[in-house]
Write a structure and sequence with these properties.
The complex is a heterodimer.
Chain A lengths: L1 H24 L3 H24 L13 H30 L5 H23 L3 H19 L5 H36 L8 H7 L5 H19 L7 H8 L2 H27 L7 H19 L6 H22 L2 H32 L10 H4 L1 H14 L6 H16 L1 H26 L15 H15 L3 H13 L2
Helix pairs in contact in A: 1-2, 1-4, 2-3, 2-4, 3-4, 3-10, 3-13, 4-5, 5-6, 5-10, 6-8, 6-9, 8-10, 9-10, 9-12, 10-12, 10-13, 11-12, 11-17, 12-13, 13-15, 13-16, 13-18, 13-19, 15-17, 15-18, 16-17, 16-18
Chain B lengths: L2 H22 L4 H26 L3 H28 L11 H22 L5 H23 L3 H21 L5 H29 L16
Helix pairs in contact in B: 1-2, 1-5, 2-3, 2-6, 3-6, 3-7, 4-5, 5-6, 6-7
Chain lengths: ~475, ~220
């Protein structure tokens, strides 16, 4: 049994790594797309098996606990559905000549390396290894954002690269400071970087050093989460890269960085004399929410619109985790899962829309529900969900965030609700233009599978109506761990 | 700790900050790259000295990487790229030299005040190293924000990474995995950048990031 459970952890790392090597060698793009989907599916199955198999004891490098299983399963699930979406999307890009066959080989190999990097970040028990994994995932996405090699794509990739590197450098400095704080207590060597060892002894660390370390880590990984004012790379990277990459950036990579922040937040919470991480996170979360809410009004590019919406939602999630306590943490976790599912579904829809209309400009896309009912209504459901209307899942998680804030710090609820309403107005305003009215733009039929898109939306809808008891229990348990 | 070993370590780390300052006022690309090579040499000496006093032999590898890769291979490569692209002209600094230097002094003061205050109990050498390292990181950031040229931003980024290496070697007994990863990430970063530079050149015959700035997807 132990041998098998070890294999599950190894599998979620080795399958993507092996698939990347195979994909780099395969010449035929149809075959690579299939291999990509199969590899993602196998990784998902391996991740699901983590629920039933016995967990290995935390080692010096890898760990599986209740917290990261949630992230891993979400990551591999969206990775798989995006793989399915990507197969049809990329085929179209090849036909229109925006990408060439060698580009695609590169793209698919990079996709699997990125999945490897993200999974490694989730399972790593070593804060140095986690840093390396986040960096790896970032670099691969930089390469994919720049894949079209147009003027705009290069600018976006360059900006993403520079800002991402600065963020990652600050995070490494924070990691070194954590090691410095741990070293007198834990002793020299690898053990002083092992998270499960650190958390046990955090109470004895020098609180001042740990506090400074957290500020660097929050700024560094916060850049990757896309928190204002460190978000400048995010809209460009979302708008100029291939749409499957926008979907995984929003749905997954932001979560990876958030996960890193949460791990260090736990470390800080275990040290009673260090600064409270809560107020910092609440401030950054609220700033991002309100800033992004206003920015939504001025967007003319459909992918940029939803990129700003991602900043908004990451703000809400960081706010919820910053509030802390079982209810707010529960709401934060739920919101994170719902946001990943909804936002990637929206990007799937947007990808097909941009392909049939041949443009990403909002003003040139009109009346989608008439010209392309399948796509149009998916977009409507997605935007209704992301704007936080009942009965979909995001309504529930936002409601929980707001009500827990009211219960504990009523004054903080005012800016929160204000931001939510502003964002809601912007999204509904844009949606009416996009989805209804006289159709404008291309009317070519969509040759794509709606399955990934609608399966995400169905999950979000189901979660809004009814959450199964085991899931609620699991989330409550994880929320308890998060303190 | 022996006074002399401490003083030498202090001298080398301090020189690294000084060389970072020298980068701030270089207004030609070749000069900037030469100063960066000097930065890497001083880093290599500093890391080697740390390896000697900590008796940590794996740090010699880090020192060797700094010397061979950052002080020789990268500067030579960048010289070639610049020649091939024909951009020997002045760097357009976004901010004047005077204000930049003043900002640099402010950043160094900030990092000294911050790091020395929060680490009163740490090993004296390590805390000095941390304070210097943070100064170098912040100065590297300053180089990046005051330049518009892609090559000089890359140089700024690499000097920032040098600060990280200094911090990592100053933290006694930090596992090797981190040093190698830092060196490795620089390698990757350089490859990425190389790819970018060539693509940018392919398309626009320019590596001035400012030239890319006119498009934001919003002003149409």
């Amino acid at each position: 049994m132990t041998a098998f459970s070890f294999n599950a952890v190894a599998a979620i790392l080795l399958i993507p790594a092996g698939a990347a090597a195979i994909l780099a060698a395969l010449p035929n793009y149809k075959m690579t797309a299939v291999v990509n989907v199969v590899a993602s599916l196998l990784t998902l199955l391996a991740a699901l098996s983590l629920f039933i198999t016995e967990r290995p004891a935390p080692g010096q490098y890898l760990i599986i606990d209740d917290l990261n299983i949630v992230f891993i399963v979400l990551n591999t699930f969206v990775g798989f559905t995006t793989g399915v979406f990507s197969a049809s999307y990329i085929g179209h890009e090849l036909e229109t000549g925006r990408l060439t066959a060698p580009n695609l080989r590169f793209y698919h190999a990079m996709y699997q390396i990125m999945m490897f990097g993200m999974n490694l970040a989730f399972v790593s028990n070593n804060i140095g290894l986690m840093w390396v994994a986040v960096e790896l995932a970032t670099l691969t996405t930089v390469l994919m954002v720049g894949i079209y090699r147009t003027h705009e794509a290069l600018e976006a990739a360059w900006k993403y690269f520079i800002l991402g590197s600065v963020g990652i450098a600050l995070a490494l400095f924070g990691t070194i400071l954590v090691y410095m704080a741990a070293q007198p207590v834990v002793g020299e060597g690898t053990n002083a970087m092992v998270w499960s060892v650190l958390i046990e002894k955090a109470a004895h660390f020098d609180p001042a050093l740990l506090s400074v370390a957290f500020i660097f880590l929050l700024l560094g990984y916060g850049t990757k989460v896309g928190l204002a004012p460190l978000h400048a790379w995010l809209p460009d990277a979302h708008a100029e890269g291939p749409t499957p990459i926008s979907a995984v950036l929003s749905g997954l990579l932001l979560n990876v960085a958030l996960y890193a922040v949460l791990r260090f937040k736990l470390l800080l919470a275990a040290s009673p004399e260090a600064i409270g991480p809560g107020p910092l996170m609440v401030t950054m979360g609220l700033t991002s929410l309100i800033f992004a809410a206003f920015m939504l009004y001025r967007r003319r590019d459909i992918k940029r619109l939803f990129a700003y919406s991602s900043i908004e939602h990451m703000g809400i999630i960081v706010f919820a985790f910053g509030m802390g306590g079982p209810l707010a943490n529960f709401a934060g976790l739920l919101h994170m899962v719902m946001h990943s599912l909804t936002k990637s579904a929206i990007f799937f829809a947007v990808g097909h829309i941009a392909q049939v209309k041949g443009t990403q400009k909002i003003s040139e896309i009109r009346g989608l529900t008439e010209s392309h009912p399948g796509l149009g209504w998916a977009l409507v459901i997605g935007v209704v969900a992301i704007a936080g209307l009942p009965p979909l899942g995001i309504f529930m998680s936002e409601f929980l965030v707001v009500s827990s804030t009211f219960a504990r710090h009523p004054w903080l609820a005012i800016p929160l609700v204000f931001g939510l309403l502003i964002a809601f107005g912007a999204l509904v305003l844009r949606l009416t233009g996009l989805a209804f009215g006289e159709p404008r733009g291309g009317t070519a039929p969509v040759e794509a599978s709606y399955v990934p898109m609608y399966s995400h939306l169905a999950l979000v809808f189901a979660a809004g109506i009814y959450l199964p008891a085991p899931l609620v229990a699991w989330f409550q348990h994880v929320a308890g761990i998060l303190g | 700790m022996n006074g002399l070993t401490f003083d030498i370590a202090h001298l080398l780390a301090g020189s690294l900050v000084l060389v970072s300052f020298m980068m701030l006022y270089q207004d030609r690309l070749f000069a900037l790259i030469n100063v960066f090579a000097l930065h890497a040499v001083v880093l290599a000496l500093s890391v080697a000295w740390q390896a000697y006093i900590q008796d940590a032999h794996h740090l010699y590898i880090t020192a060797a990487i700094a010397l061979v890769f950052k002080a020789i291979v990268i500067p030579v490569g960048l010289h070639r790229i610049i020649q091939r692209l024909g951009i020997h002209r002045d760097i357009e600094t976004a901010v004047g030299i005077g204000p930049t230097m003043l900002a640099g002094i402010g950043l160094v003061t900030l990092s000294m005040v911050l790091m020395l205050r929060v680490t009163p109990e740490a090993d004296p050498l390590a805390r000095e190293d941390l304070a210097f390292a943070l100064s170098i990181i912040l100065l590297g950031l300053l180089v990046m924000v005051t330049r518009r040229n892609a090559v000089s931003q890359v140089v700024g980024f690499m000097s920032l990474e040098n600060g990280l290496v200094l911090a990592a070697t100053g933290a006694k007994g930090m596992p090797l995995v981190v040093e190698i990863s830092v060196a490795f990430s620089i390698l990757i970063a350089f490859i990425v950048i190389g790819v970018f530079l060539f693509r940018i050149r392919e398309r626009f015959d320019s590596v001035d990031v400012g030239a890319l700035d006119d498009y934001r997807g919003e002003r149409q």
